[in-house]
Amino acid sequence: MQIPHYTKIHNRFLLNGFPYDWNGLKQVAYSFIKEGDQYEKYMGDFLMDWLDHSETIDLVTSGTTASPKKIRFQKQALVNSAIATGDFFNVSVGDRALHCLPSNFIAGKMMLIRAMILGLSLDLVSPKRNPFYKNQKTYDFVAMTPMQAFHSLDNIKQVKKLIIGGAFVSKSLQEALLKTKVKAYETYGMTETLSHIAVRTMEDSPSEFRCLPYVEIEQDQRGCLVVTSELLQVDHFVTNDAIELLEDQRFKLIGRVDEVINSGGVKLHPQQIERKLSQVISAHFFIGGIADDELGEKVILALKHSASIDLDQLTDRIKKCKSLEPFECPKSIVIFSNFMETDSGKIRRKETLLQDPVKVLDL
User: Which residues contact 51 (CB under 8 A, 6 or more apart)?
Assistant: First the structure.
């Protein structure tokens, strides 16, 4: 039976140092599913779907703000995305790449497809906080979450080009990366757009992204981003991300309209406040809104409980954060034993705020 053109494997592709063709990868997939660790099982499942003879593939969204949903894509669109990423970031045949993301979500799936299509030498490791643990190799191209990048700062010299996605890059992480020689980019994208469709460098202003050449954007009546890309077979996909349109296919990401806090008639975007507070807070936190008799909703700082947090010092830092407007300053610190998260590690804000807190401190 003839192998479909969209699942052909580049003859320079290596996985953990070994070359594989279509049949070889089928065997790898079987082995991963039967005997592998959880991250390998995820990759095995995806490989089986990718290497079948269907022209389409089903992908599941992360479920950050709603229940995960299944979307069907043409496999050729994923191939197009991989080639476009290679062109934009100048990733070429024979480059060494590190795969340290879970393959049950789009970022991990696309990292594998890029390697197979572009002919990269791909090392697969567990998606832990520091993927460079006991790993002294250097890599031309790596994709990480902000948490992984933060915990890999001591090893970042082993990376030439780094893309970071899944959550925003904090001010402290941005400044740390600027002190290194790594060429780092924060990316914007989602399952519905087959990974990133816009990027910013660490020299760019926070939240200001430039669209990749094959992407067109506009705003809907809510001021939210609408994405179109013929290459990715995306037609006027409407997001819930409020943006400010800038010149030259650029936009400033403001925040999600479905998470806006209405405090005393002032509409506040949690993500904007979080970016400001990331300059002074290194602990795991998010901004939320809870019911208040006077304001309707009041801004609170949600913290994950940790014995190492000095609340007096934290309170002092918040009050001295000059970039915060008075109405943006949290009215309370609410500490939870844990944050509710999606399978991809993103915080479920509303579900977390419904939990009984460990402690509440009014500011």
Answer: 7, 22, 25, 26, 29
